[in-house]
Amino acid sequence: MDDVVACFEYYADLAEALDGKQRSPISLPMENFKSYVLKEPIGVAGLITAWNYPLLMATWKVAPSLAAGCTAVLKPSELASLTCLELGAICIEVGLPPGVLNIITGLGPEAGAPLSSHPHVDKVAFTGSTETGKRIMTAAAQMVKPVSLELGGKSPLIVFDDVDIDKAVEWAIFGIFLNAGQVCSATSRLLLHEKIAKQFLDRLVAWAKNIKISDPLEKGCRLGSVISEGQYEKIKKFISTARSEGATILYGGARPQHLRRGFFIEPTIITDVSTSMQIWREEVFGPVLCVKEFRTESEAVELANDTHYGLGGAVISNDQERCERISKALHSGIVWINCSQPTLVQAPWGGNKRSGFGRELGEWGLENYLTVKQVTKYCSDEQWGWYQPPSKL
């Protein structure tokens, strides 16, 4: 909720500053022309959001679209619509004019798909799976409609042999077990330098065993259930496939013994992983970490970039020059150094490759909902003089 509040406040400030940036002059080499830029709302924004942070994901789109001056149609996930409907009630309460923010609920084919293809929706912003993103992009293309897509991820976390083990272990588990692993940017592929791999994994298991798994409303809970039965079964299938392909379930992989009801899965650590395995290549969207060892920096970078995705990536090392080299070498839209998953409303958020394109948050998030108009004025009292004037009678 703190992040939701911070996002609205941040874009309220940007909205107030937007008028001051209008009519920005363009430097021209010709004295008889003056040119400036207007930034205008793109129009009606179709906003389609995911279930993992339902109100926050909506806020990332609603706040900048309204700040830009757009009207918006928000379609939240059918699995988590209530907080977005509450947002609508609050908008009525605070006097937002009717029709500025519209919230529709329902399944994707009936409620989401029409937003992508509707001729009166001028732009679509989507957060969700890569497969759904492809369909939205296809539908929008028929109208030559701009889209921004924040899709899946299979982000790497590279840990070198010069680190404080426990400090790095905590970032590793935070990067994958936060929100039960239901995070698009989760650092779900852990790459360990071979010199510290055994020691690191021993501590990783010890930390994982210490995670409190419970009803999320219970004090001290650090791992709750996953979103639905469908997601629960999907995650279990990923784990069983990894085992059948020859990987080792080092820890977890089952229902916690003290929780007989609900869609709970233990934090799961999988080793002996090859780059051809499903667990290495596909997004699980659950509390499942796969681990590989590396020997050299170049090998670590090659393994990190061995993915169709490109949302996040992280490196932990006390060698800051190495961290800077790797941050440049990673093919991702976000890189964390000596941490994993900090999300700052002031900084751009988005990915490359099959993780989508466009950036949310920061000033880049506002630009998503603005168009740029050039205005140029002829300032001379003289005729332009391109054509020969007709002779006067």
From TrEMBL:
Metabolic or biological pathway, per its Swiss-Prot or TrEMBL entry: Amine and polyamine biosynthesis; betaine biosynthesis via choline pathway; betaine from betaine aldehyde: step 1/1
One Pfam assignment: Aldedh
Residues of the Aldehyde dehydrogenase domain: 2-375
Active site, per annotation: 150
Annotated GO MF terms: 4-trimethylammoniobutyraldehyde dehydrogenase activity; gamma-guanidinobutyraldehyde dehydrogenase (NAD+) activity
Family: Belongs to the aldehyde dehydrogenase family.
Protein name listed in UniProt: Aldehyde dehydrogenase domain-containing protein
Organism, scientific name: Urochloa decumbens
Lineage: Eukaryota, Viridiplantae, Streptophyta, Embryophyta, Tracheophyta
